[in-house]
Amino acid sequence: MNITQYLTEEHRKCDTYYAEAEKAVNAGDWEKAKELFNTFKEKTLLHFQKEEDVLFPEFERVTGIVMGPTQVMRMEHDQARQLMEEMERALEQKDKDTFLSAGESLMVLLQQHNMKEEQILYPMSDQHLDADRMVEAMGKLGEV
Amino acid sequence: MTPQGLQLLYLPPFSIIARFFVTAVFFAFIGSTYLTYQAVKGELLLPPAVHLFTLGFMAMTMIGALFQMLPVVAGVTLERPLELAFAVHVSSLGGVLLLVLGFITGGKASALTGLLLLLASFGGTAAYMLYKLLKAENLRDAPRGFIFALTAFLLGLLTGSSALLTLAGFLKLDYARLFDAHVGFMLWGWTALLVASVSFQVIEMFFVTPPYPRYLTRYLPPAVLALTVLRALIPFVLWDLLLSALFVAYAAVTAHRLSLRRRRVPDPLVYLWYYAVFFLAVSALLYPFKERLFAWFLLSFGLFVLSVISSMMMRIVAFLVWMHLTSQGVPNAPTMFKVIEPSDAWTLFSVHTALIASLVLLVEGFPLFTALFLSAETFLLCCFVLKGVLTYARLRRA
Fold it and tell me: Which of A3, B129, B165, B181 has its CA 20 to 30 A from that of A123?
């Protein structure tokens, strides 16, 4: 499995986790929603960690591009983290409207972020890095 | 050295998409007001109304969206995008107005000046975008589809220009054949194919659906372009039947994918997608009979485009307002449903549904109701897009 396949699969899994949490919020099942949202958040943050701790540093080392696309990706990860915090607060307050509004923004943010990674960054990483070693190192951090 | 594509992951400035979208929705409103005026007078002059929608609304939206999508979806950069967008926007705005004025008054000078401006603006940009896409490496199926759609757009401009020059007496060509080829390139090759190519990327991602079958995403774009070229060169009913079958199949697959979406929250923008694919299928089925049912074919196709653009535009504007404000460090930037509220989307969806219901009255010979509902919908679309843009402007200054 190459880097593109490995990380793209994780994107799709995270989308599914979010869809389940959103469904529970919409149904007003707050306990289940909290549980499902925690799974989504935990898995998404793990995915970010794999990129930020393993993929991006290696990409920057090999290509020499430090202040480029990986910085943009990190910035978008931070925006996603802020939205997840807002959603977590909304869950605590059982505020469906705020949760769904932040959730929609998060989904679109993540989808355009994923498009850029899947279209540009991952294929270039496969081209320039040792894919097997990268996938193995990311796998050691856990399974999304 | 920065490898190709990578320096392009940054968000294009909001002003680019805002100027195209605001102009597009105003053209839609002007077009529907013109249709209402014609309904009151009991007339139907198709060229001005059709071009207010196809060039002013559809092409303006789609070119604006490509400025946004090319860096994100294809990793393709456009040099000096702000200056380019300004030049294309101003000249295409003038071009559409002059062309439509020429159609209404029969003024050759106005129509031909408009045509020249459109060739320079839309034609020049489409050729530039096509050149950039052809140079890009490892394109996925969605941006690869843009290549075929932009090629069809250029061929549509070429055949449309030739038809107009023939009508004005500057060329001696077969007008009916050019007109037929122009419709095929612009509606199927450009509009429907671009929507399909974008959907290959966004339906799966935004609604969390299973991916489209690979044979469809890979072979639909070249097949559609090939058929539009074939029918232009060798008119034959088989090409139209095949085009029809391809888009009915695409519509069915899209509706099926949407029905399997994992995101189950009631969303009027998803329902607009259902309307879009339904009317795409209807227009595709009517297409082989266009000699007798041309107005109905155009109406169905128009409802397909209005449905899909309304759905995408409401989502894109709300997202970009939040995204740009957040990126600029504006504290507590409103998230999407606080920019364009769900009640706004439901209102738009309700009026759209009423517009569709009014088709019954249209069949009975009462076009005014349909025109009024269309005007109401495009007015609402103007309000919601402006609401997003003004929210951005107000909070950015604050």
Answer: B129
